[in-house]
Amino acid sequence: MSQAAFADAPVPHRIDTNAPPAIVLDKVNKWYGTMHVLRDVSMTVAQQERVVVCGPSGSGKSTMIRCINRLETHQEGRILVDGTELTDDLRALDTIRREVGMVFQSFNLFPHLTILENCTLAPIWVRKMPKAEAEELAMSYLTRVKIPDQAKKYPGQLSGGQQQRVAIARALCMKPKIMLFDEPTSALDPEMIKEVLDTMIGLAESGMTMVCVTHEMGFARQVADRVVFMDRGEIVESGTPQRMFEDPQTDRLKLFLSQILRGH
Amino acid sequence: MSDTVATAEPGYAAARERPPAGLVGPWAWARANLFSSWWSTAITLVLVYVILRALVGFVEWAFVNAIWSVPYNAQGRPDTAVCQNAKGIGACWAIIGDKYRLILFGRYPYEEQWRPAICVLLFIGLYVVSAMRRFWRKELALIWIATLAVIGVLMWGGVFGLQEVPEDYWGGLPITLILATFGLAFAFPLSVLVALGRRSKLPAIKLLCVLYVELIRGVPLISVLFMASVMFPLFMPAGVNVDKLLRAQIAFILFAGAYLAEVVRGGLQALPKGQSEAADAMGLTYWQKTGLIILPQALRLVIPPLVNTFIGFFKDTSLVLIIGLFDLLTMGKVALSDPPWQSFSTEVYVVLAIIYICFCFAMSKYSRGLEQDLNRARRR
Fold first, then answer.
1. 3-state SS of chain B: helix, strand, coil percent to 5?
2. Within 10 Å of residue B289's Cβ, how many Cβ atoms?
């Protein structure tokens, strides 16, 4: 982790505590077969709050974030997104997926479509937006992630960092209220991580509600309102980045911090 | 990085742009592949000799010593004595001249054979139009329906002053093209649905699809055809008569569908899970996801095995001979049963082979072009 990243001015916080919470997880449990992967996970994310989830691999952080838009189903407990509870009701699921954008570790752009088509697909088919309007919207977001000139290319012709920025633009084209990031920089070469993190910082500045699974502690320090530390399927500790990194309360967090700091 | 190298060693890049002379061109290729050692030189020479002998022999038989026509006697029967004398030395193409209409159109009334001829041309036209990507629009479905309707009218007749011709008189190339075209046109969509069904989360649908594929695939095509032609009528109430061609057609569709379903499923299986997840996360419905994201990629992946199966089934249409339908190959056999021509099977089968090769080679050539075309955009 470079010192420069720490020196960057933190993004101002503007959590709206009076508004109803964006995401509520209430005693969520999940098993894969007999393996207990989420244990009584409870967490509330306020509107415009930026939460970074960290923890060792296999700690359930990806599973948790994937439960929020039901790419995984939970077996016990409740999850409410923007006031709507996640159940087997498909209509509720549709509503939630329109409001929640997701960015994956492996980008998951559609390789048979151009960058522009990747971005306009969901607005046209899900939001029923006219094509011209969708393209205009897509171009504005592609400009925002600084790759408007690649719109006619195919994902395979772009670098990893560019692909991930397209993936962010693609998610934003649905005008989501909440953005989920599942290790967005883990599959990238070091020189490309910064361009993606800069895009995410820009997004945070615009007031987007964000839940981000990442190991980028510099990003957490600069952007997060709260850091949540998970280990073995449960939330072990959470707090402001400063408190978490400078004054960890639990041994597990101390161990984790020492390991990732040694790694960098 | 590369800039510094180029400036540090000017001329280095230029000199390396082309490999040294003597490593390219046909001579270099021949030297490397045909004459690299005394052993491979010997094999090359022997093979060249064998190939030349075979080629010269074939040209002499097929062209130089060939008999192109025979005299006809007063009754209009051919006098094949010339051909009998030339047997083994030259081909007797006169049989093709005498029998080509029987082979191509079967027992269809002679004066009406312009109708199946137009149908064959319509089929070929339909293939060509469907192959061109600029016609890949919704209207193509209408073109198909219209063309197939015209073909039906022409073959059956009975309207617009056309003489009615029952299916028992159909035969030859139209039968082969009808079975193959309708067969694959219906089997392919069926196979996509079955392949999707096999991956469905709904247990009943999944079980149904698995049973269908495993049952049909576990039985030879010939027995499916037999069942369709012999057993099926037994289960029908008396008086209800589904004609033989339609029964064979349905059997063929069901059989091809099971095989194609497994090919399509291979493509579905090969797609990374992330594609489906990304589509889900964007809020696309199941059918939007399948139609816009999954199938376009999965089908592209399986073009080679798909065309392989298409070609196999095009040729398998000839198996309908066992239930008494007269396809192209069977008509060749019928033509050979005429006593004066009985001993000239080679000529007939060479011509039939050429017709089959034309269709199959066109398919394989087209699929290779399509593959390159579709993949050009997504170089990785």
1. 75, 0, 25
2. 20
**Residue A209 CB partners (closer than 8 Å, separation 6+):** A22, A23, A45, A46, A47, A48, A49, A50, A177, A178, A179
Q: Is B122 in the same domain as B266?
A: yes
Residue B313 domain-assigned (yes or no): yes
CATH code assigned at B284: 1.10.3720.10
What DSSP string describes B300-318?
A: HHTHHHHHHHHHHHHHHGG
Give a yes or no: residue B191 inside a domain. Answer: yes
> Are B129 and B212 part of one and the same domain?
yes
pLDDT of residue A101: 93
Sign of CA dihedral B284, B290, B294, B300: negative
Range of the domain at B357: 94-379
For chain A, the 3-state helix, strand and coil shares in percent, each to the nearest 5, are 40, 25, 35
Report how many domains make up chain B.
2
Q: Are residues B225 and B297 in the same domain?
A: yes
The answer to whether B293 contacts A110, with C-beta atoms less than 8 Å apart, is: yes
Q: Are residues B115 and B187 in the same domain?
A: yes
Same domain, B137 and B50: no
Q: Search chain A and give the residue with CA nearest B375.
A: A112
Q: What angle do CA B259, B309, B155 make, to 5 degrees?
A: 95
Q: Tell me whether residue B74 is in a domain.
A: no
ipTM, interface predicted TM-score of the complex: 0.88
Enter the tokens of residue A129: 């937006």
Taking CA–CA distances from B379, the nearest residue in chain A reads: A156
Please check whether residues B189 and B248 belong to one and the same domain. Answer: yes
Each residue of A177-236: pLDDT tens digit?
999 999 999 888 888 898 899 999 999 888 899 999 998 888 898 889 999 999 999 999
Same domain, B26 and B148: no
Which one of B201, B282, B292 would you mutate to disrupt binding with A, by most A Cβ within 10 Å of its Cβ?
A: B282
Nearest CA-CA distance, residue A121 and chain B, Å = 9
Establish, for the pair of chains A and B, how many residue pairs have beta carbons separated by less than 8 Å.
65
8 Å CB contact between A208 and A181: no
Single-letter code of the amino acid located at B106: G
Partner A, chain B 285-344, Cβ-Cβ below 8 Å:
285, 288, 292-293, 296-297, 300
| A97/B281 CB distance under 8 A | yes
Contact, A229 vs A55, CB < 8 A? yes
Structure tokens at B118: 């137009």
Flag whether B8 is in a domain. Answer: no
Give the span between the Cα atoms of A49 and A15, in whole angstroms.
Answer: 5
Which residue of chain A comes nearest to B279, CA vs CA?
A122
Does residue B13 register a pLDDT over 70?
no
pTM: 0.82
Under an 8 A CB cutoff, do B380 and A100 touch?
Answer: no
Q: How far is CA A22 from CA A65, A226, B111, B377, in A?
A: 14, 15, 80, 40
Would you give the DSSP letter of residue B134? G
**Do B60 and B98 sit in the same domain of this protein?**
no
